[in-house]
Amino acid sequence: MEYTIRRPDDFHVHLRQDALLGPVVRETARSFGRVLVMPNTVPPITTAAQLCDYRRAILAELGAPGRAVSATGSFEPLMTFKVVQDIDPRSVPDLAAAGAVGGKLYPHGVTTNSSDGARTIDPLLPVIEAMEAADLVLEIHAESPDAFCLDREASYLPVIESLVFRYPRLRVVIEHVSSAETVAFLSDMPARVGATVTVHHLLLTLDDVIGGELRPHHFCKPIAKRPEDRDALIDRVLAGDPRYFFGSDSAPHLRGDKESDCGCAGIYTAPVAIPLLVDLFERHGVPIRESDAGTGDGPSMERFVSRLGAEFYRLAPSTGSLTVERVAWTVPSVCEGVVPFHAGHDLAWAVRDPI
Ligand code: NCD
Ligand code: ZN
To answer: What parts of the chain have a pLDDT lower than 70?
Structure first.
């Protein structure tokens, strides 16, 4: 049994730097043809020159300049910059010309490498206005740093609402949506407001993080919440709601940095994301391939991972394909020093590498 689908895109990945960059890029490129690269590197990506250097470093890991064609097919990093206070709004057109498709807003201290984030939105408004003018997407880590952890996402929604109405052409993505409140909020928003959904927020609740033993490899921001929250996400994704598209938030940290007194947030899902999504859609009886979804815009996994994000970002459909086959395999306990999601577990579906 196997399915061949249009090559998936991943609209939220952390590819990291230095020694982790190569293994993470190569693993990510096994499943995904285009990935939206997060800018929370050290130092962050805030200039056109840094953006070009980072893209070059990513592609160099696949051994090809420009638009890399690796053993796994074509791979295109879609670049972003960090929306921070000291960006000169006049540099936004340069960032767009260098290939940025969006800018990522991190509130102060909400996640990995965000101590440079904004404490209030006001100082960022000139940059956001310039992004609207340049038709760049504003990606938002939607959490209020000072709210109780389970309420952080919901408590950030008024900030998003104010931006959406202040900038009537701005496209906004609420990244790694994690709560039923945000799902309700999105249903009242114009279509230019979308959301990425991770595989781990479709599978985990807070019980899988702290309900029994402490599971540091299930710890991420925003934290997995109640069953009702997870079910609200599953409902929208399986219904094929076009504003919800795939962004894995695959976020590797070395094992010692997670299994620690002060563990880092982030789950490394790149090796398992597609097999787990196939399993989820199958279990709920939703087709994997668009061609099995009937005429029109019926829900399918292929539409979720290979079409809706590209449409939101106004990109051509991805080229190439990916085959997943029903082959049992055991997820390695460690990949290059990082414990992947579902480490040591048996999965029913595997991504087939091209011969
Ligand atoms: C991400 C990381 O490690 O860079 N961590 C996470 O828990 N998701 C940052 C982020 O997207 O919040
Ligand atoms: Zn992220």
So the answer is: 64-73, 355
For ligand 1, residues with CB inside 6 Å are: 14, 40, 111-112, 141, 220-221, 249, 251, 265-266
What does the alpha-carbon distance between residue 188 and residue 328 come to, in Å, rounded to a whole number? 42
pTM value > 0.85: yes
Question: How many angstroms does the Cα of residue 144 sit away from the middle of ligand 2?
Answer: 16
- Mutate which of 40, 45, 204 for ligand 1? The one with the most ligand atoms within 8 Å of its CB, which is 40
Q: Count the helix, strand and coil residues of the chain and give each as a percent rounded to the nearest 5.
A: 35, 20, 45
CATH T-level fold of 9-276: TIM Barrel (3.20.20)
Catalytic residue check, 249: yes
- Testing ligand 1's pocket by substitution, the residue of 104, 112, 178 carrying the most ligand atoms inside 8 A of its CB is 112
Residues sharing a CB contact under 8 Å with residue 60, sequence separation 6 or more, in sequence order: none
Residue 137, SS3 per DSSP? strand
For ligand 2, the distance from its centroid to the CA atom of residue 355, given in whole angstroms, is 32
Residue ranges covered by each domain of the chain: 9-276
Measure the CA–CA gap between 176 and 170, rounded to whole angstroms. 19
What does the pLDDT read at residue 112? 87
